[in-house]
Amino acid sequence: MAVVNANSEDIKLLARLMRAEAEGEGDLGMLMAGNVMVNRVKCNCLDFVNIRTIPQMVFQSPGGFEATQKSYFYQRARDREIRLAQRLVNGERQHPATYSLWFFRPAGECPPTWWNQAHSGRFKNHCFYSPSWEDCPGVY
Questions:
Q1: What is the pTM of this model?
Q2: What is the tens place of the pLDDT at every residue in 80-121?
Q3: What are the residues whose beta carbons fall under 8 Å from the beta carbon of 131, sequence distance 6 or more?
């Protein structure tokens, strides 16, 4: 059962963003980045109030993803990433991104907080940050 509403074009858009943000991290890294993306649609809290669709999440401004400003984001979605995106829309989650709303790639170590959210873990080059249940119960 889908955790967010998505048609085939939404799935392709999510797949393109996952690839643009985390292709170098492999399938698991793309799944984790995608967890953050789906969580932003699902949560309806903090900076993501009224972000109810995948296109709204992808092109949110301010607060969106830098990759949407790069040419490689506009490449056609590949079957591999489409399958990964569908798994996320169907509810799959990967730790440490399970409840995360933010990730980024620091030059060094992961800071203990990011946008006042706790560090939930690192995968390869990306640090993930999750809100508390009190701040954002919709992501849990």
A1: 0.96
A2: 999 999 999 999 999 999 999 999 999 999 999 998 999 999
A3: 43, 45, 46, 99, 101, 117, 118, 139
